[in-house]
Amino acid sequence: MIRKAKESDLEAIARLHSESFENHFLPKLGIKLLSKYYKEFINDNNIFIVCTDESDNIIGLLLGTPDSSVGKKQFIRNNFLKLFLRVVKLCLFLDRDTWNRVIEYFKNVVISKVPKKKAEEFNKTLSINTLTLLSLCVSTNAKGTGVSQQLVKVFEQIVKKSGYEGYTLTVHKDNDRANAFYRKMDMSIYKESHSEYGYIKNI
Ligand SMILES: CC(C)(COP(=O)(O)OP(=O)(O)OC[C@H]1O[C@@H](n2cnc3c(N)ncnc32)[C@H](O)[C@@H]1OP(=O)(O)O)[C@@H](O)C(=O)NCCC(=O)NCCS
Fold first, then answer.
1. Which residue, by CA, sits nearest to atom 8 of ligand 1?
2. Residues with C-beta less than 6 Å from any ligand 1 atom
3. How far apart are CA 149 and CA 157, in angstroms?
4. What is the tens place of the pLDDT at every residue in 62-82?
5. CA-CA distance, 129 to 135, in Å (whole number)?
6. Mutate to test the pocket of ligand 1, among 151, 171, 177, 184 (most ligand atoms within 8 A of CB)
7. How many CB atoms lie within 10 A of CB 96?
8. In CATH, what number does 2-202 get?
9. Which helix (H) or strand (E) holds 162?
10. Could you give the CA distance from residue 182 to residue 186 in angstroms, rounded to a whole number?
11. Mutational pocket test of ligand 1: of 181, 184, 187, 201, the residue with most ligand atoms within 8 Å of the beta carbon
12. Entry pTM
């Protein structure tokens, strides 16, 4: 069954995210902080849906947002001390991913001219009103079963009903399965960095 995500789902959502994105940055924050990260996205501005099995276990999640920086900034503001201590610890352990995030954060927040310029460049390439698909993952057992396709189909219906003309997402170039999946879902590459592809779909 596909339904809207609710606050009581947050721990299961964080666990599924951690299992799915093992070597990424967010799982390094731990389940509690990751739950708080997702909490910031449960509101009417975003499309946050989950797929559950017959026992109501969450086996898939999809989060779409008009502006991912809103939820991310709220998360940082509301959890600053815990997040700061966690990030310092990871930096002391010389976690490369964390260092990259810290550098990126300072580029975007402290040197405020950079994101404006970036946003202008980004918007120039898009002539339609789009939403960003920020997170999509399914449990190991649900891979290849059609759960992710169902989630994307329901998401696309809500995107359309909400008046958007399409949606975008970014994915690591070396995530072969996800790249094959998005191509199968008729998405096309519209931008590229050294490590990521940006996909778009008009609906
Ligand atoms: C990305 C994800 C949601 C896709 O769901 P899925 O159920 O695995 O997707 P599907 O099996 O329907 O489609 C994947 C396709 O890639 C193919 N594939 C599987 N492994 C592959 C690999 N290593 N290289 C290339 N293609 C691969 C599959 O055969 C399938 O194609 P087919 O249906 O034509 O046979 C899921 O794999 C997932 O949760 N991954 C971890 C989280 C993640 O990476 N999310 C996306 C980041 S934005």
1. 143
2. 20-21, 136-138, 143-144, 148-149, 169, 171, 175-178, 180-181, 184
3. 12
4. 999 999 999 999 999 999 999
5. 19
6. 177
7. 8
8. 3.40.630.30
9. none
10. 7
11. 181
12. 0.90
